[in-house]
Every structure is written in structure tokens, then in C-alpha cells.
Design goal:
amino-acid biosynthesis (chains A, B), 6-stranded parallel β-sheet, 14 helices, 443 residues, Homoserine dehydrogenase (chains A, B), 10-stranded mixed β-sheet, Alpha-Beta Plaits, Rossmann fold, homodimer, alpha/beta, 25% strand, 3 domains, Dihydrodipicolinate Reductase, domain 2
Chain lengths: 443, 443
Amino acid sequence: MTENKTGVVWGQDHPIGVAVLGMGTVGTEVVRIIRDHADDLCNRVGAPVVLRGVAVRDLSKDRGLPAELLTTDAETLVARDDVDIVVEVMGGIDPARALIAAALNAGKSVVTANKALLADYTGELAAAAENHRADLYFEAAVAGAIPVIRPLIQSLSGDRVNRVVGIVNGTTNFILSAMAETGADYDDVLAEATRLGYAEADPTADVEGYDAAAKAAILASVAFHTRVTSGDVYREGISKITAEDLETAAAVGCTVKLLAMAERVTDEDGKDKVSVRVYPALIPRKHPLASVNGAFNAVVVEAENAGRLMFYGQGAGGAPTASAVMGDLVMAARNKFFGGRAPGESVYAELPIASIGDTPTRYHVNLQVADRTGVLEAVAGEFAKHHVSISTVRQEGHDEGARLVVVTHHAQESALADTVAALAELDSVTSVTSVLRLEGTEE
Amino acid sequence: MTENKTGVVWGQDHPIGVAVLGMGTVGTEVVRIIRDHADDLCNRVGAPVVLRGVAVRDLSKDRGLPAELLTTDAETLVARDDVDIVVEVMGGIDPARALIAAALNAGKSVVTANKALLADYTGELAAAAENHRADLYFEAAVAGAIPVIRPLIQSLSGDRVNRVVGIVNGTTNFILSAMAETGADYDDVLAEATRLGYAEADPTADVEGYDAAAKAAILASVAFHTRVTSGDVYREGISKITAEDLETAAAVGCTVKLLAMAERVTDEDGKDKVSVRVYPALIPRKHPLASVNGAFNAVVVEAENAGRLMFYGQGAGGAPTASAVMGDLVMAARNKFFGGRAPGESVYAELPIASIGDTPTRYHVNLQVADRTGVLEAVAGEFAKHHVSISTVRQEGHDEGARLVVVTHHAQESALADTVAALAELDSVTSVTSVLRLEGTEE
């Protein structure tokens, strides 16, 4: 037993009370672990950790729990005197936002897996935590079971992060992996992913990159000590990726991945900015992220002293996400017991957000062209005219089916867009089949 | 500014003082970062972090530091009133052990990268930390820059770890990678590694697995909440690995790695034990650790809920190791500032250590045999007689040069040793060329 600052004596007679908000895939696992592993949790925290109640939407569903643990009144559950820590795994902005705020304002610690909420409201929630000396933990919000938030906030707190690149959405990675493997089209693979439960009935948040963008904002915030919200993230989804894109990627030794990137870039005046972006891109097959397939996630962190680190594992699912939630819960409970505090929000660096125009990338441009003398010269001329430097050009096929694959050096998005518009006007160019960014190469 | 339990008010007028013990590869980088990144450190901690002094062996060497910061009297430096945190990067048992104890006994927090010391003396050091409410951090002791201790202690604190397998020694991994790539012999590659600075003049600690064993003990301790010391680790080095071993490994789709393993095993009575072992083993080329080459490190953690996680990065070197040290230093300084505590030693599970005999593994046995009828039958007979079940047999070559490669199912080490002894006695067996374990396969 130990006495903390508020004079509470934790121990067998005064266990640490937990409320769980939401009993979906993750909540069910969290509840199971709290109940099944009470001894381990007590040993690891120093005092018993007891489930006080679970807020659900529907009381009639059998959840294998004593009725008195279930309630539809989350607000009252959060406010209970014997609830010290609130685990929010209900998702969505409302009512999660108000419930978390209420908990923090009452000095209760909060563990949440809610990336959409954190991506836009970390500022107000962190302020509430700070004002009431409560903890706000959110390891489970990004990349499921993979420890990445804690390493960024704590392990790399004495280093200078320059880049975070991750595959942080399992649905899109499953789809892109399956397309690469089978040669099938996007629509067919999406249908299969939906059937298998890897994609939701409305897959928009995943396939259009909104989920990855929320996670990118969270990663960028903790990596760069700067508040980044989802609106700061440049975002493109994978719904326009074709079987042909995967095929041409393979032909040049690459694969296509939906990347969430947060990067320190230096503008013309030598000032640091943060570029945060989500889009599908070609990466070389030898890149460590290229072999991250199916529903797995991975995050690569590059820091000044640490060099390149990679974290890999299951990015979603009930038990893996619950593992991350439980780690945070044990730490929050330990802080109650020992009187410590989670590191609060750190936004001192206040780096400006770089526009996508400030962030040159390499491009991979596919053109359908007429197979006649001078076409390469004409195409190369348009790139040169717009100051986009070409790295390699590959010509494939003959006659009507001839194709040019142009890989550029780093170029501004606007310059590339102008080039593409001009290429489309050329007589010798039948169509610009696809334009994809190329990442993960050393020029 | 904030007031902690001891009434100290940290801030511009009362910075957090740091002593660094040792100025080798890692110490030099730590000192550089503390001095060059003072602003970032102050922002991340809440108060300035100031270097009070560096203990070195030789004052005459130019280290680019003001003379008043250097001392050969580590004991007095540690005892200074204005030193709040001691960073020990001198290595070795003595005098590091006494200096760390002195710091902790004075309530000063300690950050250390000293795996040899921790592997054998964590118990006494952790007790000193506990008794004097000081922090003992050691992320840098295992796998350099890669966050693995903190994820195990904190992120996975609500999960149940079943296995930790790592490549945690860069020297041996460099040697084995080079042998696999070039086909060269052990001695030649070791000489080259020494020339390039990847191996020390006396490479024993690395090549005989002592360094990896110390790290395995530390990993096992934190993963299984059980005190494990280096003497508990079954250990074999790589000095007997031949070019032929690498070649036959490649022929069966494997590579050879020096693995540090800590594993939960269940004995005949259904009781959990911890098996901790270091040895070179074949792993399938598709295993995530198989592509970890050169001086890189990686650690795979398997937990009940998280599933399989992998952490990858630079396992040694000045700057990478300093990154881990600095992360710990910032956390220790934050705890001074905010009044929190690092998680202490957790050994409540007290799992018994499994003997190597309790830990069946698969084996890969190479035999030089006479190419005549009945040899396979005779060999298979010896395996059967000793209850070692064969998975596959491959026969190569003819006449005098015929070779049998036998891969077993899981077998007891003693049974395998008896089998090998009996095989060597067979008329049809010229010699048992090599016996290597096989890990990372699902049977």
C-alpha cells in the first residue's frame, strides 16, 4: 500500500476502479482481460484493478457479464466515485468527446483508442488532463498492438525525429496486397475484403485514407512536438489504383502501399516545417515496408541519432488493440498508485505545416503513346519545359499499344501537374494512364 | 516550475544536473547531445538539463570539452550535490556497480547501458532504487537504439508475453551475414570484421555468445516478471559455424543466426517455466529475423493478445545507443520535475528456469555417409531407437562423398546427443559433420 498526493491509500480495501465505454471488438477483449488476469494486473500495478461497469448501447444483448456491470448511462458510470480510470473504446466523436472530457475534468485518467477524436481534439483533451493532473494515454489509437506512440513520446524523447512513415491501415493494405498477389481489380478485391470482414460495409474512411490521415496527424504531433490535426494532412485514397498500376509497379521492382508520412522538411528560408500526407505510392521491393502484407501494420521512424527503426505487428483486431489499451491501463493505474504522471501533450516546437507544394516527391508517370519517331523527344520536352527532371524512361510495346513509363527526380506537385496537363495535349500521347508518387528511394 | 515531493523547485535557477560516467563511443555522443540540444531537452523536461561533469580515465586526451567538466574522480562527481541523474556508460562490473549503487543510495536516478552489470546485479541495484525512490533506466543495455525494454515493461504490461527472440549482437550477425553472402570461412570473416572495427581485438564476449546471453537475461527478466541472470542462460557461440553449415542451410531455404531466446515453456506437471538460451540456429528465410543482416538488431516479441511484434534498428554504435540513453535521461529528468517514478523491478512471477533438457527443439543433422544400400535404414534406426522423430531426410552426392541431411521434429537435447553419439559409431557413417538447431518453423 502506498499513499499518493491526494491522500488515497490504494490496496486490497481500495482497488483502482475502471469503467469501460463501449463493448465492441476491442471493449470485449479489454473486459475479458481485466476479469481473467486480475492477479497479474494486481501484481503489476500494486493494487487490484476492478471493473466497475461497462457502458453499452444495447442492454438486451448477452455479453456473458453480470447484469449489474452493464449500463446504457455512460455519463453516470464515468462520474461514479469508485471509477478512477476510464477506458474509451466506443469510437466516434460524440459522445466520446464529452465523456472523456468529463472524466479528465474529474481528475480521472483516460485510456482511449479513438484516433478520429484524438486527431482533431487532442488539444482540448490534453488541456483538461493537464489542468486536473490526470493521464491521457492513447497507444491503441495508432497501429493496434504495435508500440509506437510510447516509443515516440518516451524512448525517442532525447532524439530528433526526422521522418515517420507507416502502413497504418489494415483494410487498404489487405486490398493492395491482394491486388498485387492476384492481379485482380480494385472493385473485385474490395468486394472480397468486405465479404471476409477486412473492409466495412461503408469502406470510405479506410479506402479514401481518412483513417490513415487521422493516425498520421497523431504520429506527426508526437514525433514533432507540434499540434497537427487531420485537416493538416494531405490525403489521397486507393480507390483509383488499378490492376495495371500494380503491374507496372512490379515491372520496375516496386509495390504500391498506402503510406502515412510525417516528415520534417526545410523550406527555402531554412526553416523547419512538418509535412504530413497520406497517399498510395510506389516503394522499392527492398524497402522494409514493402514486405508488410495483408492486415499487418508497420511504422518506420527515422531519427537523427537512432537512425532508422521499424515497428511491426498487428494493427487492428480485438485482442491486439486490447493489448495496447491494457498496457496504457496498467501504466495509468501505476501512476495512481505511485503518484506519477503520463507525459502530457508536447507542442512546444510549433512547426508550421508544409503545404503539399512544399514537399517535392518523385513521380512515376504512365503514358499511352503513339509508337512513332519523336514521341520520346516530345514527352521529354514537356518535362524539361516544366523543370521536372527525368530519372529514367522505359518504353514498352509497339504500334497502338506503346507505353512510356517515366520516373522523375524530386519535383513539385504543381510542376508535375502542369507537365501532365501538357502531356495530355500532345498529339503523340494517347493518354496519361496513371501518375503515382515514388517513395523510399535514395536518389 | 513545479515542486516535487522533496520540496525542490526545478527551473531556470535550479536545473537538473547530470553526471556522465565514461566518455567512449556512447559517452561522447551523450555529452554532445546534452550540450547541443539544450533547448529541446529543456522544453521536453520542463527544466534545463545541465552537464555537471564527465568521469574519464585519461585527462590528457583532448575531448573538446572545458577542462573543468572532466574528472578522473567518478566517486566525487557522483556525490556532488548538484548532480541529480547519473548516466553510466563506462561498462564493466567494477567500478560501475559501486558508482551506480552510490548514486541510487543518494536518491539520484541512474541511466545505464551496462548489460553485463544488469544481467547479474539488477536485483541489488533495483532494491537500492526502490529504497531510495530513485529511477533505474536501462533501455540502451539491449539492442542499442531499438526501443524494446520500455515496450516490454510498459506497453506490454497488460499482456502476457510468451516468447522473445532476438538478434541482439551486431558482431556475430555481421560475421554470419558475411559468411552467408560470400561463402567465406569463419576465421577469414572474423579477421575482416576485426579489421573493419565490427569485432573487438578479443572477440570472445561477442562470438561465444556472452554478450547475447547477458541481453537474453535482461529481456527474460522484464518479459516474464522473473529475475533471470546470465548464469541462467544456456549459451553456445558461433565460433564452430563453418562455411559448409551456411551452405547446407541455404540449400534447405534457411539461414543461420545467433538467436537470443526467452520463452515460456510448460513442464510435464503443467507448470510454467522460463527457458533462456543463446545459440546459432537455422531459421527459414521467410522468418522475419532472417532478413536482419549486418550489424542490425531485431527483436520479435510474441504475446497472448498482441500476437507477434517485431522491433528493428541499429543495435550498437555511439549515436544509436546514445539515443536510447537520452530517452531514458529525459524520462528520469521528467520524473524529477513532475515527481513520478520509473516502473521498478517486477519479479513477482518467480518462474523457475527451465533446463536446456526441458526445452525440446528441432535439429538439423549433417552426416557424411558411405553411399551404399542400407545406410538410410541404419541411420533412421538410430533416430527411432532414441525416440527422435525425423521430419525430412535429404541425400546428396555419391560414392565416398555422400551426405545425409536429417531434420528432426522437436526432440530433447539429451536424446539428440545420444543419437549423434550412436550415429558416429555406425560403420556406414563416416562422420557427423554438424548438428544445428532449427528455430522459427511451425511444425
